[in-house]
Specification:
Number of strands: 6
Strand order of the largest sheet: 2-1-3-4-5-6
Number of helices: 11
Shape: globular
Strand content: 5-15%
Largest sheet: 6 strands, parallel
Distance between the termini: 41 Å
Amino acid sequence: MTTVLIVDDQALQRLGFRMLLEAQPDMTVVGEATQGGEAVRKTAELRPDVVLMDVRMPGMDGIEATRHIVESGGRSRVLVLTTFNLDEYAYEALRAGASGFFLKDARPEELVVGIRAVAAGDSVISPGLTRKLIDAFTKSRPGHTPEQDRQLARLTEREREVLTGVATGWTNTEIAERLCLAESTVKSHVSRILTKIGARDRVQVVIFAYDVGLVRPA
């Protein structure tokens, strides 16, 4: 059973999300929060699998709350929701450690699938936002740090190839086919890459690859 904490300052939005999620046989809503500070406290208390996080709220916003939740080192993963199309929100949410980003106009079935994916350890980005995110990385990335250089140096040549595939958007199956590897081998490489660069999930791997210049927009 996937447990979810709903964070939104609008009561009708919270009710709608609750009705949608509790209609799923494999999901349960363990709590609600109306602003970021409350979300951080309830996440620590309830330890949900997924925190469904709004961005714009009074007091601490969803970006800062996401940062606090991720830095706490707990098991909860954050899926950010907003009514605003890509601008600094998606970029900063992923920078803060969110495992996904959806617009609130996403279809209900897309959101449910996204929550399941995040709970399983994957990352999701709302359809149509990936290309814009890459453009945002290119325009606003501050440049790689000496620590990122050291992390990149820890990777083997094969791990760099797999990292490039992940950052390009290939699935494990596609990476396996293109590099003539078993899919289980690709999964092992991805796991080692996450450890070596200190990344939480595949979204953070993509950010790293663009930061160090390993991958650039077409």
